[in-house]
Write a structure and sequence with these properties.
Blueprint lengths: L2 H10 L1 H11 L9 H13 L4 H12 L9 H17 L14 E6 L6 H14 L4 E5 L5 H14 L3 E2 L7 H14 L4 E5 L7 H18 L6 E7 L5 H13 L3 E5 L8 H10 L3 E5 L7 E2 L3 H8 L9
Parallel strand pairs: 1-4, 1-5, 2-3, 2-4, 5-6, 6-7
Antiparallel strand pairs: 7-8
Helix pairs in contact: 3-4, 4-5, 5-12, 6-7, 8-9
Length: 310
């Protein structure tokens, strides 16, 4: 990745990294006895990495470590290595692979998660890769969502299929698939309603969209991507649980990894659910959503700078 992207990652994970370094401060100078290992494990959990990852790091540190001291940097290097193992399994960019086209991506998430903006950023990413992209405004519950998506479509220069507020979402998606097929579009990205408080209604609507898509192409939708807001911390994990049940999530995008984000939840989500994490967002610009390098992100979270030739 470019230096500019690396700098954005450093800024995006700054709160997480500072918190982890602060939580581990002073623990590396002590003998790694049971009490110190307990403190390290608690520090890792407090940094939102999740109990499973924290327990595994503790176990690795405990393995033969009781008779020696370890510098704090050495502990953070091990933390980085273990985080990388978790993230490497799930760092998987979205691929436009469906044939026949279009490749249909349903994008879901609670209102306020950055879902609509993420759709625009994904569309931009695909256009950079020379794919033809179309958007479908399937969140008909909110007029603002339709208007916002249309504004983004105009800004990045891709077509959009939309209908009135309160319109039939499945019908709009059906029209979009037909138009995408007729015009040779590679990727159709579909916005959907995010009103979790009406879980049954949301489930019914998504099921209707999926049934309609399945009649056109049994393999469609090809991806069901959940957008998560990193600033919500552990609450993001409960959202994954609910949306897996409601919508059959196939992958994740983590947004709002800015200076206020609790980025350790990226690791906890990867560990707990094992779903592909297709991209992370570290800014408001249309180019600020990208697939990520597990090694780079792990070293940044742990406060271990990645070598420039590494």
């Amino acid at each position: 990745m470019t230096t500019a992207w690396h700098e954005k990652l450093l800024g995006g994970f700054k709160r997480t990294s500072d918190r982890l370094i602060g939580n581990l401060a002073g623990l590396g100078s002590a003998r790694l006895d049971t009490d110190t290992l307990d403190q390290i494990e608690e520090a890792l959990i407090a940094s939102d990495l999740g109990p499973t990852t924290a327990a595994r790091i503790r176990a690795r540190l405990a393995d033969g470590a009781f008779e020696r001291n370890m510098e704090e940097l050495g502990i953070r290097v091990i933390v980085a290595e273990e985080i990388e193992k978790v993230l490497a399994k799930v760092a998987r960019p979205l691929e436009i692979s469906a044939f026949p086209r279009p490749h249909v991506i349903l994008v879901i998430g609670v209102n306020g998660s950055g879902k609509t903006t993420t759709i625009a950023k994904l569309a931009h990413l695909f256009t950079e890769q020379d794919y033809g992209v179309m958007l479908a405004a399937g969140d008909t519950f909110r007029a603002a969502a339709i208007g916002q998506l249309a504004t983004w479509a105009d800004r990045i220069g891709v077509p959009i299929v939309r209908g009135p507020e309160g319109g039939d979402a499945a019908g709009i998606v059906f029209d979009a698939v037909k138009k995408a097929t007729a015009t040779g579009i590679d990727a159709l990205i579909v916005d959907t309603a995010g009103r979790l408080q009406n879980k049954r209604e949301l489930m019914d609507e998504l099921a209707k969209i999926k049934r309609m898509l399945g009649k056109i192409d049994p393999a469609s939708p090809h991806d069901v991507v959940l957008v998560l807001d990193a600033t919500t911390g552990q609450n993001a994990l409960s959202q994954i649980e609910v949306f897996k049940e409601v919508a059959g999530v196939t992958g994740l995008v983590m947004t709002k990894l800015d200076g206020t984000a609790r980025g350790g939840v990226l690791v906890a989500a990867a560990e707990q659910f094992g779903l592909p994490i297709h991209a992370i967002g570290v800014g408001e610009g249309v180019g600020d959503l990208r697939p990520f390098d597990a090694n780079e992100v792990a070293r940044i979270i742990a406060g271990v700078e990645r070598p420039r030739n590494g």
